[in-house]
Fold:
Amino acid sequence: MSGRMVGILTISTMGAAGQREDTSGEAIRELVEAEPLAATVVERAIVSDDRDAIERTLRAWADERHLDLILTTGGTGLSPTDITPEATRAVLDREAPGIAEAMRAESLRHTPFGMLSRATAGMRGATLIINLPGSPKGVRECLTAIMPALPHAVDIASAQQTGHGPAGGQG
Structure:
């Protein structure tokens, strides 16, 4: 086991009210616990489409829990209630646009609606935060597309905290 610690934050007003099962969060858990990332999910929560709640959770998990990776699901579309990207950008120190670009490119291979995603990704301190779509299908497509680079990205990001970068690291 790598020791990589992951948080999964589902943004769903219906889910937070107990009116919808968190199938997207479960899809994320299955993928991140498997190789190549082989991470441990140490935090998991469902919050409503509330910007303050999203920002508060992302800050706490990055700053207090020192998670290596936070994956959000939901709230990345064009609906007026879809505010996950704005909440994420508000807490990021630096964006990592290539991650979101790769996910949109993969989504476009499956549906023209992939271009409507406003998902973002970036760093808060040594924590990598990535917005994923709100459907299990979208989660699997996007996370599978970025998974080859994710272990390296997480290791480089967490090395900032320790001051010891991985050998041959890009960064």
Q: What stands out?
A: The helical segments are 13-16, 23-33, 51-64, 84-91, 97-110, 136-146, 150-162.
